[in-house]
Amino acid sequence: MYKLDFLNEAKNIEKELSNIRRDLHENPELGFDLFRTSQKVKDFLTKEGIEFYDVAQTGICAIIRGNGNKTIALRADMDALPLQDKKTCNYASKINGKMHACGHDAHTTILLGAAKILNNMKDELSGNVKLFFEPAEETTGGAPIMIKAGVLENPSVDAVIGLHVEEWLDAGTVGLKRDVAYAASNPFTIKIIGKGGHGASPHMTIDPIVIASTVITTLQSIVSREIPPTDPAVITIGTIHGGTAQNIIPEDVTISGTMRTMKSEHREYIKTRLVQVVEGVVHSMRGKCEINIEESYPCLYNNDKLADLFVDKASELLSSINVQKLDQPTMGVESFAYFSMERPSLFYFLGSMNKEKGIINPAHGSLFDIDESCLAIGVAMQCKLAYEFLLNS
C-alpha cells in the first residue's frame, strides 16, 4: 500500500522540482514554438516510464493508467511571454526578450512532479490520470486544438483540474473562486474611413480622428449605462493608429481593443451593441467603417462538486485557514476555459508570494518571480485531488 502523504512525497523531490523550474525559467519559449520545453517534458516522461503522444504542434498528452475506467486530467501551460527579464538572480532568462513572467514554468514543473508521484503509485489509483501540457496559452490557446485532436477521449475524461500561481496569495495558501472564475474575451478592430485633406481646411474633409474620438467615448456608455452595475464587464481601447503629420487629416484611423464579460448574455449583447454604436456614430459623422470582432476565450466555470472536493481536500492538506474563498472573479482570461466548456472542471490559485523574500512583483511584469516552496504544495494538491476524485467520485 502506497503511503498517501502527498505533501511529504512532494517535499522529498523539492530539489528536483526547483532544478526543473529554473531550467525552464532560464530558457523560455513562446506560443507554439516550444521545441526545447516540449522535449524536456518528453524526456522526463520517458525517464519515468509514462506513455505520451504529441498534440497541438508542441503540446503533449500523457496518461497514467490505474485501475478502473474513470479518468481525470491535470493540465499545465508551458509558454512564456515576450518580455525582458530584469530580475537579478542566477536563474534569470537567458533569452533576450522572452520571460516566464506568468508562472507557466512553475505549472509545467508541478505537473511533472505530480506525474512522477502518481505514476509511482498507479496501482493504487482507482482510474486513469491524463496529463495535458498545453502550448500557446498566452496567445490563441492550445486547448481548443488539443480538444479537437481528441485528448478528452480514449479514455473519456470525466473531469479536468488546473491551477495558476498567484503573486497576491501567500505561499502556503490556495484560493478558489466558485462558479465563474475568469472572463470571456472578444478582441476587436475598428477601421474608420473618412476623407483626408489639409489640416487648415477641415470643412473639406471627413475627419476620421474626430470620428474615432467620438466612437471611443461613446463605447464606454455601453458598460456604464446598459449593463447592470452588479455584473462585471469591460470595453477597453488599447491602440489608436492614424495620421502622418500635424497638418494632415488622414484618410483613415484604426482602433483596437478588447471586451471582457462574465455572462454569455452580456457577451452577445455587447458584441451587438458595439457594432450598432460604431456604425451609428460613424455614419452620423459622414464616415464609413469596417468592424471585426474575434471570438476568443470563453468564461471559465468551476464545477460545484469539484469545488467542494477542493475545499475539503485542500483543508486536509494545508488546514482550512490556508484555503481562501475568493468572492470576485478576475477579468483576465484563461484558455483552461475551453476545457471547462467540455467537462466538469476546477481551476484554483496557488499562492506564490513571499514578502520577506521580496517576492511581490506582479505577473506579466519584468520582475515577476515565485517562492519555490509553492511547487511542492502544487504537486501535493494535484496528486491529492486526482487520487480522491478517482476514489470517491
What can you see in these coordinates?
The chain has 393 residues and is α/β, with parallel strands linked by helices. It folds into two domains: 6-182 and 299-392, Zn peptidases (Aminopeptidase); 184-293, 2-Layer Sandwich (Alpha-Beta Plaits), CATH 3.30.70. 35% of the residues lie in helices and 25% in strands. The protein is built from ten helices and 16 strands. The strands form four sheets. Strands 1-2-4-3-5-16-6-15 form an eight-stranded mixed sheet. Strand 1 (51-55) and strand 2 (59-64) form a beta hairpin. Helix 4 packs across helix 10 (373-392). The longest helix has 21 residues, at 264-284. It starts with 5 loop residues before the first helix and ends with a helix.
List the helices and strands and how they pair.
Elements (H helix, E strand, L loop, with lengths): L5 H7 L1 H13 L8 H14 L2 E5 L3 E6 L6 E7 L26 H17 L7 E7 L8 H6 L10 E12 L3 E3 L2 E4 L1 E10 L3 E2 L9 H19 L6 E10 L5 E2 L2 E10 L2 H21 L3 E6 L6 E3 L1 H15 L4 E3 L11 H4 L4 E9 L19 H20 L1
Parallel strand pairs: 3-4, 3-5, 5-16, 6-15
Antiparallel strand pairs: 1-2, 2-4, 6-16, 7-14, 8-12, 8-13, 9-11, 10-12
Helix pairs in contact: 1-10, 2-4, 3-4, 4-10, 6-7, 8-10
